Amino acid sequence: MVIGGGIAGLAAAHRLRERAPHLDVVLFDQGDRPGGKLRTVELAGGPVERGAESFLSGDPAGGPSAAVRLAEQVGLGDAIVHPTTSKAAVAVDGGLHDLPPGTLMGIPVDTDPAERPADRPGSGPLLRPGEDVTVGGLVRPRRGDLVVDRFVEPLLGGVYAGRADRLSLRMALPALADAAERSDTLTGAVRSALAARRSTPGAPVFSTVQGGLSRLVDALAASLPDVRLGLPVRELRRHGTGWRLTVGSTRDASTVDADGVVLAVPATPAARLLSTVDGVAGVPLGYASVALVALALPATKLPELSGFLVPATEGFAVKAVTFFDQKWSHLRRPGLTLVRASVGRAGDEHQLQRTDPDLLDVVRDEVARLLGVDRLPDPVDAAVFRWGGGLPQYEPHHRDRVAALRAALTAHPAIAVAGAAYDGVGIPACVTSGWTAADTLLEALEG
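^ Coproporphyrinogen III oxidase, sequence as received from the core. Prediction below:
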């Protein structure tokens, strides 16, 4: 039984089906369609993503990412496409400036020791084994506020909608955290983390599926024998050697028995379901909300970039802008220019209280100002996609809390957790999390 039809739940169910075809695999999701935050809709007669637009092409070991492998498994290998350009900028001091090359999430490798004495070699590694700090806590004293505020935080904001001084280093930059256990300077740690990236020179960093990420969702759902939508799972209890789920509305609930369960839902509903399991507590986790504003403009001249980031210190509601048809050649349409802007940072949700028309006006005005033009043309089509509580905000030692939860679950019949709440954001991370949960379940069932 898999609870949750986002990409982690779909990956878990697909893995169970592939590795144990004799099992009756059932996936429950309370929505009217699977996919969670992956959904392709139509804008001005063509596809646009409501949520994530792409995924990493490679994994840290140098092979294809879990997302690429999953797409290949469901027959979409030939549909994988890559950006036409990945050159991006950052908006500071009234202009667009190239992101500095050779950095790790905006952290430059080298710095003048005279300017940053805190990065001189010390008496030991930057971090003790297993120690966790915020990204800002490690980087600010060794690279300065300007680097963090102008480069590191905008990049983190684009991925997590989070703040450098709140986000866990081990969750946001695990390779840097590992390197910091072996290095006595940030320079050494950044160099080590960059060297550990086993990628082919010139290989594309990002990929997507031509026609939209809903194609991946639909292919996964079609591969499963039993997907039940519109059915929330309200309760989870031990029952004999397995589990009993209470499913459906409060007025029309039913029970379903399962030998094993994968919980692939966000931290809060997972904690509620786990509250009935003795000795188990969910993982406390906050979430940030975001809105994505998509504009289909009459053909408009834009800088030759994939888009740009906007630091919070610049005072704009917009935090990132993607030039979709410049970034992805397969999205180009004659006479149209596709732009998508992101609004919403952790602690800055008041911007999202605006109505959709008001938010559209704010985005059009701010994007024009950031581009240095008087105004953008009236859009041919436009849409606002809201994700309330969409992005997890990992505080330091989040990994320890997840490890404690998983250790507690081993005392019970086959049960596992999966998803961004536990193993990081991004499609490959969620796919890997789903696969790991499925393998944990199979091991417990076969044991």
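Residues 10 and 220 are 6 Å apart (CA to CA).
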